[in-house]
Amino acid sequence: MSSSKANSQSGLVRTGNRDFMKEINLSIVINLIRSRGPLSRTDIAHSSGLSQGAVSGLTGELLATDFIREIGGGQSKGGRSPVLLIINPLAGFVVGVKLTEQSIVAVLTDMEAAIVHCTTTLATSLRDPQTAIETIIQTVETTIEESDVPRSKVIGVGIGLAGMIDSQESVCCYSPILGWRQVQLAQPIEQRLQLPVYIENDVNALTIAEHWFGEGRGLPHFLVATIGRGIGMGIVANGQIDRGAMGGAGEFGHITMQPGGPQCGCGKAGCLEALAADQAVVRMACEALAAGKQTSMQWAAQDPSQLTFDHVARAASEGDTVALAILNEAGRWLGLGLSYLVNLLNPQLIVLSGEGTRTGDARLEAASQMMKQHIFDQLDKGLELIVKPLDEEAWARGAACVVLSEVFKHPINRDTRAGLLGVV
Ligand SMILES: [Zn+2]
C-alpha cells in the first residue's frame, strides 16, 4: 500500500485546499514562536521564509483569537524597537488524567503545560471499565469546576495508563494492572464530556511531555526510562514518538536478562523488571533476611511480607551495607539494560524517571557505571543521562501534554479533532 493511500484511509490527510495551506503556515508561525519566542514579525519572516505580509496576516489572526500575545520591544538596530510575540499561555487549557488501579489524578494545565489545578480521586478498585469511565468523567468535571477556568476554554482531555495502548484507535489493548483487554476508553468519555479525548501509554505520555516541554525539547533522538513498580520506556526517534506496530514498543522491563531467573509479573522469568524494579529490591532483601545476614531490617525477619521498598531505601540511606548492596545489584541490572538501549538506538539523551529514582545514588550510580562499561565504542559521546524524579501529578501532566502536542503538531500529522482553537 502506498503511503498516501494509507494516510487517506486513516483520515489524516485533508485535501490540499487553501484552508489547509493556511493551517500549515499558521502551524509554522505558532511553532516558531513556541520554540524560539519571543520573536518579532521580522524574525518569523526570516526563519520561516514567509513574506512579511503573510506573517502580518497570520499573526493578526492569531492575535485576534488571543492565541498569541504582544510583549514589550526587543533589540533595536536603531529606530523603534520591534514588538515581540509569545504564545498566550492562557489561550486554552487541557486536562491530563493518570489512571492507576486505585486512583485517578487529574490536572488542568495551561498552553505551556503549567499545572493550574490538581484533583485526586481514590477508589477501591478501577478494574471494572465502567466504574473507571464514570470516575474519570467525574474527576475531570470536578477539576475543571474547581479550577475556575471557563469550560469553553478547555480544549481536550488526555488519559495516560500503563499497558499496550492503540492511541490511533483510542483503545486500551491490554493493561495488566487493570486486567483490561480491548477496552474502548476514549469514546464514551468523549461523548459525555463533549471534548476530544486522547489515550496514551503513560510512559509515552511522559515522553511526549519531555519532547514538547521538557529535557528533550528540540532533540531528535532520546529515551525516557521509568523505574518503580515496573520498568517502562518511551522512544523518540527522528523527532517522533515510536510506538511500534501495535503500540507495544518500549517494553524495556520485559527484556530477558537472565534466562531461568526470578519470576516476573508478566509470567516469564528473568526479565529486567524482576531483577531491577522495586519488587526485585524487596525480594532480594527477603532473601538476605532468610540467609541470616546482619542488617537493620532484621525486625522483618519474622514476617518478611511487612517489608516494603521504602524500608530498604531508608536502611540504605542510613548506611546499611546489606541494603546498599541490594540497591547496587538492582542498579547494575538496570545499567546493563540501559546499555542495550544505547547500543540499539544511539540516543543523545536518556531521562531516567519514575518513583524508583527517589533512592538516590545507591541504585542510580551503579546503573550509570554499568551502562558506561557496556556501551559500544563511541556511542557514549555526547550521551547525557538525566535523573528526573516525578510524582503522580507529573504523570497526569504528561497526559495533558498529549493533547497539547496535538494542537502544536504539524497539520499533516495532527488529529483532525485538535484544531487551532478555532483559528482556522
Ligand atoms: Zn516480564
UniProtKB/TrEMBL annotation:
<comment type="similarity">
    <text>Belongs to the ROK (NagC/XylR) family.</text>
</comment>
<dbReference type="InterPro" id="IPR000600">
    <property type="entry name" value="ROK"/>
</dbReference>
<dbReference type="InterPro" id="IPR036390">
    <property type="entry name" value="WH_DNA-bd_sf"/>
</dbReference>
<dbReference type="InterPro" id="IPR043129">
    <property type="entry name" value="ATPase_NBD"/>
</dbReference>
<dbReference type="InterPro" id="IPR036388">
    <property type="entry name" value="WH-like_DNA-bd_sf"/>
</dbReference>
<dbReference type="Pfam" id="PF00480">
    <property type="entry name" value="ROK"/>
</dbReference>
<protein>
    <submittedName>
        <fullName>Xylose repressor protein</fullName>
    </submittedName>
</protein>
<dbReference type="InterPro" id="IPR049874">
    <property type="entry name" value="ROK_cs"/>
</dbReference>
